[in-house]
Write a structure and sequence with these properties.
disordered C terminus; 272 residues
């Protein structure tokens, strides 16, 4: 690790306790990454930028305000206490904030492992939430936004935040990572879920470069179809939905769209 990063880390550990960094520091980092990555998509929708937007519908200012206010309430009343009370469990599993910092190789391997484990757990937890009773009483809160924008990624019933949040913290809780690894994992996971809910499918979107990555178009389909049979339940990748056939509706829609586009291209060729 570079000396500048190690010096900055030394400053943090000299001036704050490990508990403060792991709980309140993690909360501040989460809020910063979440809102800094989510607000640009909110502004794009507010400004009426429709190019690359998946759905033409825009959320009203009232709906946007409702989302932000409830998010602040949920984050302070649910996320922060969860970060505080989970510290002893992480510490028990070997969690540390001390120098030396882990190597980039170790960080990369751990975060990739967390992604795979999180995707597996999230898929089944999310699919369970789409059963009739759980959808009606819990998961329907998240689906209030059929046209999602970045910040709606964490708009959910408090019970769902705890239930699906287990998928995110499971990997780190098992391995007891360094705090730097935990912070990086939390950051990339937040960036991923905000992008999946952003409502825009850009030419440079990761899903166009990495086919196994779901992205905004994949998850936007999930929000357009309400209730229990929407499919596309995975959080990051698409292989779980492919393995269990819960992406068939999405694939059919994509095939119809591609067929329609091909017909339009053929018609244009004939006219010219």
């Amino acid at each position: 690790m570079g000396s500048a990063l190690e010096s900055a880390w030394q400053y943090l550990t000299d001036n704050f306790s490990e508990f403060q960094l792991a709980s309140f520091g993690s909360f501040i980092l989460h809020e910063s990454v979440f809102f800094l990555s989510g607000v640009p998509y909110l502004l794009m929708e507010t400004w009426g930028l429709t190019k690359y937007k998946i759905q033409p519908k825009m959320n009203t200012p009232a709906a946007q305000e409702k989302c932000i206010l409830k998010l602040l309430l949920y984050h302070v009343c649910v996320n922060l206490p969860l970060m505080v009370v989970s510290y002893p469990a992480f510490k028990y599993m070997g969690f540390t904030s001390k120098l030396p910092l882990p190597s980039w190789k170790m960080i990369t391997v751990q975060i990739l492992t967390y992604f795979v484990l999180e995707d597996f757990i999230f898929y089944w937890g999310h699919r369970i939430l789409h059963t009739k009773w759980l959808y009606k009483h819990i998961h329907s809160v998240h689906h209030e936004y059929a046209t999602p924008f970045g910040l709606t990624s964490e708009y959910a019933h408090p019970a769902e935040i705890l239930f699906l949040g287990f998928a995110t913290i499971c990997g780190p809780a098992i391995t007891g990572p360094h705090l730097l690894t935990l912070w990086l994992w939390m950051s990339v996971r937040v960036l991923e879920t905000v992008e999946a809910h952003c409502g825009y499918d850009f030419p440079w979107s990761l899903s166009r470069l990495l086919p196994i990555y779901g992205g905004a178009d994949f998850h936007d389909y999930h929000h357009r179809l309400l209730y229990t049979k929407s499919g596309n339940y995975a959080s990051t990748f698409t292989y779980m939905d492919w393995l269990f056939g819960t992406d068939k509706g999405y694939k059919k829609l994509k095939a119809l769209k591609n067929g329609s586009q091909n017909c339009d291209e053929i018609a244009d060729d004939k006219l010219h």
